[in-house]
Amino acid sequence: MTPGQIQFDDNTLLPALFGHHDEYLLQIEQLLDVTLRYRGNHLEISGPMTSREIADRAIGSLYARLKNGLEVAPGDVQAAVRMAAGNGDLDEDLSLRTRKRTITPRSPMQAEYVRALDKSDLVFGLGPAGTGKTYLAVAVAVTHLLQGKVDRIILSRPAVEAGERLGYLPGDLQDKIDPYLRPLYDALHDMLPGDQVSRRMANGEIEVAPLAFMRGRTLNHAFAILDEAQNTSAMQMKMFLTRLGEGSRMAVTGDMSQIDLPSGTRSGLGDALDVLDGVTGISTVNFTDADVVRHSLVARVVRAYEARDVRKKATDTDR
Question: Which runs of E-coded beta strand occur in 135-271?
């Protein structure tokens, strides 16, 4: 079948493929500037050749997803278009099956990231907000735990104030720290039932803790994730990386454009990337605004800030 002409062999899947009131077809039309018309099990795609080819691959990928027993949601449609535009498909072999949902990479770079997390002992995931750096790392960690590849998950963040002071927050130390760790709790609850999260945290299979709590430990048979790593000092980063023990994996995520450290303090993430460049067993995956999988406005916000930073650097250079 040539691009622009699709024939489906299972009509029962078409309502889920097309969406309620054809919302998924409309979404593809808007994203690719094509026109989609169907009659029975036949779909015709009209528009520029390149757009028709991308739509053809995207729809085929979503149809294959349904045939494999998985659901299609609005985010999957956008992901399928993004993957198809990069000459890829929603790769079911990279799907991460947790207790609550199946998570599939939604951009070619996310697919590369999942592969790196599965094969490398240490992975740096770098890039702007909304690219799935932390979420996918937690998803891989959860699947490794459920498959018995590791015995526990360690999730950590540096407790660095972003314009606020810990001492002014109400409650005891745990109450003050919990807001910094909330994104990690949210990711866990997205993948595991609440009672399982509580039980696994109680028995030590899952630990969510500030970075300072990692000092002096050796993390054996664990999947450890350090989030917001741009807010570590060089000493803190070295301390965390040297916790890696037998049978363990580490993921370090961060965004070098959102550093909250005191002025003049070098980010431990930037320092580590320089020191460890070329070291065997380490993978680095760099996301861009093209990989943002939140609301489409987030990508535009990221691009606007990046453009402002470029203009500012050009102005500073001219002075």
Answer: 152-157, 206-210, 222-226, 249-254
The phi and psi torsions of 193 (rounded to 5 degrees) equal -60, 150
- What does the DSSP assignment read for 254-269? E-TT---SPTTPPPHH
- Taken in order 114, 129, 276, 242, is the CA torsion positive or negative? negative
DSSP letter for 86, please.
T
Q: Are 8 and 38 in contact (CB under 8 A)?
A: no
Cα separation, 74 vs 67, whole angstroms: 17
Q: pLDDT tens-digit profile of 139-167?
A: 999 999 999 999 999 999 887 644 444 45
| 201-to-61, 158, 198, 207, 209 alpha-carbon distances in Å | 37, 20, 5, 6, 11
Please tell me the pTM assigned to this model: 0.78
Which residues touch 156 (CB under 8 Å, ≥6 apart)? 208, 209, 210, 211, 213, 214, 224, 225, 226, 227, 240
Whole-number Å distance between alpha carbons of 308 and 290: 18
pLDDT in tens, 182-197: 888 899 999 999 999 9
- 206-210 β-sheet, strand order: 206-210, 152-157, 222-226, 249-254, 122-126, 282-286
Are 214 and 243 in contact by the 8 Å Cβ rule? The answer is yes
Tell me phi and psi for residue 128, to 5 degrees: -75, 170
Cα–Cα distance between 200 and 202 in angstroms, integer? Answer: 5
Residue given tokens 């049978």 in the structure block:
247
